[in-house]
Write a structure and sequence with these properties.
- The protein is α/β, with parallel strands linked by helices.
- The protein folds into 4 domains: 96 residues, no CATH class; 171 residues, Rossmann fold (3-Layer(aba) Sandwich); 97 residues, Immunoglobulin-like (Sandwich), CATH 2.60.40.2950; 198 residues, 3-Layer(aba) Sandwich (Rossmann fold), CATH 3.40.50.880.
- Helices cover 24% and strands 34% of the residues.
- The strands form 7 sheets. Strands 16-15-17-18-24-23-22-20 form an 8-stranded mixed beta sheet. A 5-stranded parallel beta sheet has the order 4-3-5-6-25, sandwiched between helices. Strands 8-14-13-10-11 form a 5-stranded mixed beta sheet.
- A hairpin with a 2-residue loop joins strand 23 and strand 24.
- Helix 2 runs antiparallel to helix 12.
- The longest helix is centred in the N-terminal third of the chain and has 24 residues.
- The radius of gyration is 42 Å and the shape is elongated.
Length: 610
């Protein structure tokens, strides 16, 4: 709506600080002029131009303004988090938003900004108020008339003090759920991040039911390791302690589920998943070495230097080794000699690896043994190529070798490499003529690594400045032993990906959990009450007409969105904001100056003639 305004303005081109003083001086000079004329006293002719000068410093303007009334702004926020997929929530949200947009359009002079939130939130959190505040920062404060939120009530960032309280703008929340919706969920109240292998840890959980059903007990099952099951009865609303076994190093995954309650809107939060990282109190290593060599001495010293390692060394001259492979966390073969271990024992080692064990092979002749089926490489051509070479990284995506890339140009050389052909696994390093040097592979539930050279000890001796042997071996053994720090990479899913399957989120570091409808409703009502808005359950309105009515509210009225003729309605603050689109001004300063100056000189000439 365009409108026109016209007015006369007197403005001074002098600084504001001097205007008052010059006005008094001008009035004083005009007074002297009047006295001279009235009393026919001794008049000085220069009084005329001086008075005219002081009067003419004020400019006369005729101003024309063209104004336009800008539309009020209503911000509509739609919750699109995963919990909206339960029942008809998503359909109600879309229908309500369409009806509101139509109603805003019929009302006229309203611009609606729609913000959709929740699809890509971390950990499936619904952060509505964060999105609202970011949106409002880019809008003129004086034009915002209302904020409408359509959600299911599961909101994770309800503030104690809402930024809109300073805007004098009503906030309306439309809940697309039912007052008496039933929903049973598992809350993981406490769970450790780490636990020792072959020990037990305690997890504290709670089962909530929003309907507060009369049942006092609920069955909870815990699945882990090859579908092993724990089944226990839990009292509703009370914390319950569950003892879980840590069977292996690395990730131990537990899935906790509760039975279905009555009239549940979603089964997504009947299930929770936690991951406990298993760590070893003592690392038990079996080192099998052939004839005496600097390589064997290196490996023995390497493992002995770590107080957390319990080393068992089986040399070539020892017979009748009887300890079970399952007694060890890691088995290392270095320059293995024929018949050091029986065929049956080697078969047991192969089964040990398949069942989750870890094995490393260094330049060993195991291809004609029972371990052949799990080795990732086989001999090719000459047994050993005897010449110097510098190791090179062939995979920068592996957590084992990627931290070493920056050091590669400074590495010293090795001497001698077994010529082999890769069969399976991942090639991490190459040596002479591009032949495989370091290969890793996953064998069913276990892991294996092959280092096709026995001269890594040259790095330890700082030959030609050496190389990062300790970092390489630490990373390699951490990966073989399924250390958690090596699992958060391209080799495994991240925690965020693991938790995306569940609507009820639990994070080990921070103990975040999704709020239920009842808990969030209380906080939302507090925000709505402070902003004088409305809190409406859409499901209580006929489904074909889910959106409340929209009405303007004057500044003098105190009711905002309360019941009107038995129907809920949304109140908008009427702002009536104007903006100046065009300003044209005609300066009358020259006319004013000429008229006064001419008049003064006429009086001066008249007096002079007398």
């Amino acid at each position: 709506m365009m409108s026109e305004y016209s007015a006369l303005h007197i403005e001074s081109f002098l600084p504001l600080e001097l205007q008052t003083a010059y006005i008094f001086i001008a009035l004083f000079m005009v007074g002297i002029l009047y006295c001279c004329i009235a009393k026919k006293g001794h008049f000085r002719w220069y009084s005329f131009p001086l008075a005219v000068f002081f009067i003419a410093i004020f400019s006369l303007f005729q101003v024309k303004e063209m104004g336009e009334t800008l539309p009020d702004i209503a911000v509509m926020v739609l919750d699109e988090s995963p919990s909206q997929s339960a029942g008809e929530r998503g359909a109600r949200t879309e229908m309500a938003s369409k009806q509101l947009l139509s109603a805003f359009k019929d009302l006229g002079n309203i611009k609606v900004i729609t913000k959709r939130v929740g699809k890509e939130s971390p950990y499936n959190e619904t952060r509505l108020f964060n999105a609202i505040e970011k949106t409002l920062k880019n809008l003129p404060k004086e034009r915002i008339s209302s904020v409408v939120i359509i959600t299911d009530g599961q909101v994770h960032d309800v503030p104690k003090k809402f930024v809109l309280n300073n805007y004098d703008v009503p906030v309306h929340v439309l809940l697309n759920g039912k007052h008496d919706e039933g929903d049973r969920r598992i809350v993981v109240e406490k769970a450790p991040e780490y636990g020792f292998v072959n020990s037990e840890i305690e997890v504290i959980i709670k089962v909530d039911d929003l309907r507060k059903a009369p049942e006092t007990k609920a069955r909870v099952s815990v699945r882990y390791s090859k579908n092993k099951l724990i089944n226990v009865p839990v009292t509703m609303g009370s914390s319950f302690k569950i003892v879980l076994p840590i069977e292996r190093a690395g990730e131990n995954r537990f899935v906790i589920e509760t039975e279905v309650g009555s009239e549940e809107i979603s089964l997504a939060n009947n299930r929770a998943e936690i991951i406990i990282n298993g760590i070893r109190d003592k690392l038990k290593v079996l080192l099998v070495t052939g004839k005496p060599h600097l390589s064997s001495l290196f490996w023995r010293r390497f493992f002995k230097s770590d107080a957390s390692v319990c080393l068992t060394h089986h040399a070539f001259f020892k017979k009748n080794f009887k300890q079970k492979p399952s007694d060890f966390d890691l088995i290392v073969f270095d320059r293995y000699e024929k018949d050091m271990l029986s065929s049956k024992y080697l078969e047991d080692i192969a089964d040990y690896v398949r069942n989750g064990g870890a094995m490393m092979v260094i330049d060993s002749k195991l291809n004609n043994t029972a371990l052949r089926s799990i080795l990732p490489a086989s001999p090719a051509g000459k047994d050993v190529i005897a010449k110097f070479f510098r190791p090179e990284i062939s995979s920068i995506d592996s957590p084992i070798t990627s931290p070493l890339v920056s050091y590669e140009r400074e590495w010293g050389r090795w001497f001698g490499q077994t010529q082999a052909v890769q069969k399976t696994g991942s090639l991490l390093m190459t040596g002479i003529d591009g032949f495989p040097l370091l290969i890793t592979d996953k064998v069913e539930n276990g892991r294996i690594a092959m280092l096709l050279s026995d001269s890594i000890w040259l790095w330890q001796r700082d030959f030609e400045k050496g190389g990062p042997y300790k970092k390489l071996l630490d990373n390699l053994f951490s990966w073989l032993l399924k250390d958690a720090k090596m699992e958060n990479s391209s080799f495994a899913k991240t925690k965020e990906e693991n938790f995306k399957t569940s609507d009820m989120m639990y994070e080990l570091n921070g103990s975040k959990e999704a709020s239920n409808l009842t808990a969030t409703e209380k906080h939302l009502k507090h925000i709505v009450a402070e902003s004088k808005g409305s809190f409406v359950w859409l499901v209580d309105i006929p489904f074909e007409r889910v959106a409340p009515e929209i009405r303007y509210v004057g500044k003098s009225k105190k009711t905002y969105g309360k019941s009107f003729n038995g129907k809920p309605w949304i109140g908008l603050r009427l702002k009536k904001v104007h903006i100046i689109r065009d300003i044209s001004q005609i300066s009358l300063t020259s006319t004013w100056f000429i008229l006064v100056f001419v008049l003064g000189w006429l009086i001066f000439l008249w007096q002079k003639e007398k």
